[in-house]
């Protein structure tokens, strides 16, 4: 029987700006939230009949630009920002809204995803995290080459690290390795590779995408998503090939094309299960005429149901 694909359930959206690059090695991601606003993210989502509330920007400590201490740079500052993110994201979820965290660097996923995991525990939902990134972000203090915490959030969320960062959501670990699927990975440190294998993170790297295609990759990443699933997308814009997304501090060649990235978002929209979103690592200081921010907004439109045609599915 042929049916018309229906749009995702309309849930009011809350934008939460988090203007910090305290977890990154290159400054500039602190300007990301306003670049996304300039690129029209509010209007793009509202176009789909969604009520959008811009909650403004959170505040927190500045970037002290200090060297690592015991394997971590700026741990206390990172913890302060992530506690604020956790509280803001959890409040919007509790109010029945779909929070979009506008970063900021990817260390902020500690706060956003721990809040999502807490909400899932409170509501009895299962959690699926789709982590779009050029990097695995599963470093620990013992294997990190830099101490930059934007390369560590996955490890903290799975309970590996200091309590200051693993306990933000009130439950350790915040998520389990089987809750997360990583897509587009193409830069992993040596120690990180071993750690990923040991704890069993499912990683769809770019070789895998090249071999089977993005459609098959996404079908596997979304396998098991059901009506009781809270689907969280953590979108690091360095997931994209730097030829189309230059405005990031950690570019890695060989990323997905524009159409591959759009297909990812369209297939997520088809599930109707998107309930929270991170957009991180946009660095306007390195961008060209805000093109990377505009591309990120294009992808958000696809997440909310933009398509070329009204598609029929059997």
UniProtKB/TrEMBL annotation:
UniProt xrefs under Pfam families: Arginase
Gene3D superfamilies reported in the protein's UniProt record: Ureohydrolase domain
SUPFAM superfamilies from the UniProt entry: Arginase/deacetylase
Gene from which this protein is expressed: rocF
Protein name: Arginase
Family affiliation: Belongs to the arginase family.
Cofactor note: Binds 2 manganese ions per subunit.
Taxon lineage: Bacteria, Pseudomonadati, Pseudomonadota, Betaproteobacteria, Candidatus Accumulibacter
GO cellular component: cytoplasm
EC number: 3.5.3.1
Co-factor(s): Mn(2+)
Positions bound to Mn(2+): 106, 133, 135, 137, 236, 238
One annotated GO biological process: urea cycle
Listed GO MF terms: arginase activity; manganese ion binding
Keyword annotations of the record: Arginine metabolism, Hydrolase, Manganese, Metal-binding
Claim: Metal-binding is one of the keywords in the record: yes
InterPro entries per UniProt: Arginase, Ureohydrolase, Ureohydrolase_dom_sf, Ureohydrolase_Mn_BS
Pathway named in the protein's UniProt entry: Nitrogen metabolism; urea cycle; L-ornithine and urea from L-arginine: step 1/1
Catalysed reactions, semicolon-separated: L-arginine + H2O = urea + L-ornithine
């Amino acid at each position: 029987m042929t049916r018309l694909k229906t749009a995702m359930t309309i849930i009011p959206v809350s934008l939460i700006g988090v203007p910090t690059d305290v977890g990154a090695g290159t400054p500039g991601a602190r300007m990301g939230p306003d670049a996304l606003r300039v690129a029209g993210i509010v209007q793009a989502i509202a176009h789909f009949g969604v009520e959008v509330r811009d909650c403004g920007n959170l505040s927190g400590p500045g970037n002290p630009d200090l060297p690592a201490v015991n394997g971590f740079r700026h741990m206390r500052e990172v913890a302060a920002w992530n506690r604020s993110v956790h509280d803001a994201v959890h409040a919007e979820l509790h109010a029945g809204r779909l929070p979009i965290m506008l970063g900021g660097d990817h260390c902020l996923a500690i706060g956003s995803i721990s809040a999502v995991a807490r909400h899932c525990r409170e509501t009895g939902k299962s959690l699926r995290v789709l982590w779009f990134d050029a990097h695995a972000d599963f470093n620990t203090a013992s294997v990190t080459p830099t101490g930059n915490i934007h390369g560590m959030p996955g490890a903290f969320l799975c309970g590996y690290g200091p309590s200051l960062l693993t306990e933000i959501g009130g439950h350790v670990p915040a998520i389990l390795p089987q809750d997360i699927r990583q897509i587009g990975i193409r830069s992993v440190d040596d120690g990180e590779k071993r750690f990923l294998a040991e704890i069993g993170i499912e990683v769809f790297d770019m070789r895998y995408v090249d071999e089977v295609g993005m459609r098959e990759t996404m079908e596997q990443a979304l396998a098991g998503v059901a009506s009781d699933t809270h689907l969280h997308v953590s979108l690091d814009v360095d997931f994209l090939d730097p030829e189309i997304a230059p405005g990031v501090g950690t570019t890695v060649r060989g990323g997905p094309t524009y159409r591959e990235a759009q297909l990812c978002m369209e297939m997520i929209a088809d599930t109707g299960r998107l309930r929270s979103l991170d957009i991180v690592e946009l660095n306007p200081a390195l961008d060209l005429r805000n093109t990377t921010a505009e591309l990120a907004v294009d992808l958000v439109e696809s997440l909310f149901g933009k398509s070329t045609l009204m598609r029929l599915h059997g």
